[in-house]
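sry for the spam today, last one i promise. struct tokens for design, 444 residues
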């Protein structure tokens, strides 16, 4: 996981909403499952089929497939507002430094009016438009970002599976990262910034405006204008965290006779190395030259730990219908890691059930998560239905899903295709929440 880089130049935007942490978005499905609305535990194929449900290895064995290879990337990004657009706007990159410089200039301006005997309309300070314009832009940013949570996950998977043996197995290596940031904009900060915008927006500060101002004071003709500094007023805060995970999973499967039924069962032990970070930021501190960089504070919070968990899955074909049913219990042993600042990342168990119907080139599948869980703090409880039509050489896919863990943009639609070994899929919920993936996957 690449580490966030926040320096003095970009500290303003970072302190408002931790945009740097978005450089490190972890989990997400593969391209095929994304396109099918996440519904694959009864319809798994190749290495990813074993990752989603290790029992799928037995179905691959029955299809007389012997070897599988996969390398793929997937990501999911959740933005509850327009924070990403604001944070990626180049015009906002240096806004804190620019405002700080303009306030310094304003603080050095000489008072041109007589505060005692002057008329209320007299001009005390001119050439104020720059600080007013910057204040207006910063106010728009704060209004956009206030209490808007940004979560991101991404994963790179590489794996192989061998299904020609008596005990089919798969090995999958995953490098993933997750990040989240939530700002809390103080109401008083809006008042401070709004005053600069309102009083100075006509390029002058009049005597009446100076008398009414809470933060600007004209004491005497020829004296410098007294300006209350941002570090003495601003109280907005933000909290963000990131986690990098390197995980090795080895899946095994076997079939058992249960009465008149053949039940496939599988297990995937998973061992991980976790590196966690978090940082708490106050905007007022970012105006201080002595404040340590966000990068340094993130480094101080770093914690590295190892963890172990496993998935267990089963599937069974119904004897009289072209339907397969399946169930998976993921992350049976809960995982957690705390940073030096006691910010905790959690991964908790989740039970998922699913079914798959196949008729010729038409395939319909559905998955239902029975409880809400966390994957490195990324909350999820998805229900999805997917349709696939085609062959191994070419297939088109579509799906619809809903995530009960989300208050907004819970329902999403997905599309994708398979062209030989190339698989592409994307799922969109609202305009700012996207899950997408692409991969090369071989099975023969």
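last one done:
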């Amino acid at each position: 996981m690449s580490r966030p880089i926040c320096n003095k130049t970009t500290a303003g935007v970072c302190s408002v909403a931790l945009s740097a942490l978005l450089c490190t978005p972890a989990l997400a499905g593969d391209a095929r499952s994304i396109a099918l609305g996440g519904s694959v535990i009864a319809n798994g194929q190749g290495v990813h089929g074993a990752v989603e449900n290790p029992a799928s290895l037995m179905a691959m064995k029955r299809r007389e497939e012997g070897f599988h290879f996969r390398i793929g990337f997937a990501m999911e990004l959740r933005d509850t507002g327009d924070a990403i657009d604001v944070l990626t706007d180049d015009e906002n990159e240096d806004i804190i430094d620019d405002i700080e410089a303009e306030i310094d200039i304003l603080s050095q301006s000489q008072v041109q009016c007589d505060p005692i005997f002057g008329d209320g309309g007299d001009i005390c300070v001119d050439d104020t438009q720059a600080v007013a314009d910057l204040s207006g832009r910063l106010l728009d940013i704060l209004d956009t970002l206030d209490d808007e949570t940004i979560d991101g996950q991404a994963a790179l998977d590489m794996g192989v599976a061998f299904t020609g043996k008596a005990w089919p197995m798969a090995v999958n290596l995953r490098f993933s990262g997750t990040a989240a940031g939530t700002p809390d904009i103080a109401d008083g900060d809006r008042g401070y910034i709004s005053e600069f915008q309102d009083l100075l927006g006509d390029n002058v500060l009049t005597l009446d405006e100076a008398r009414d101002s809470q933060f600007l004071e004209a004491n005497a003709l020829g004296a410098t204008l007294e300006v209350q500094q941002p570090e003495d007023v601003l109280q907005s805060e933000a909290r963000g965290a990131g986690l990098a995970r390197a995980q090795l999973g080895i899946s095994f499967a076997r079939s058992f006779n249960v009465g008149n039924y053949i039940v496939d069962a599988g297990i995937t032990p998973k061992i991980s190395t976790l590196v966690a970070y978090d940082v708490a930021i106050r905007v007022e501190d970012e105006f201080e030259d002595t404040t340590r960089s966000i990068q340094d504070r993130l480094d101080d919070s770093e914690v590295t730990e190892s963890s172990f968990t496993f998935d267990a899955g089963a599937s069974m074909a119904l004897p009289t219908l072209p339907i397969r049913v399946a169930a998976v219990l993921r992350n049976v042993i809960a995982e957690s890691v705390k940073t030096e600042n006691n910010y905790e990342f959690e991964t908790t168990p989740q039970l998922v059930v699913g079914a798959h119907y196949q008729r010729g080139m038409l395939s319909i599948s559905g998955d239902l998560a029975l409880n809400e869980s966390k994957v490195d703090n990324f909350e999820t409880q998805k229900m999805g239905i997917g349709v696939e039509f085609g062959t191994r050489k070419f297939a088109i896919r579509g799906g619809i899903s809903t995530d009960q863990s989300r208050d907004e943009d819970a329902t999403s639609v997905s599309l994708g295709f398979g062209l030989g070994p190339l698989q592409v899929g994307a799922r969109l919920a609202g305009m700012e929440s996207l899950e997408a993936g692409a991969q090369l996957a071989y099975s023969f």
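DSSP finds eleven helices and 22 strands in the chain. ok im logging off now
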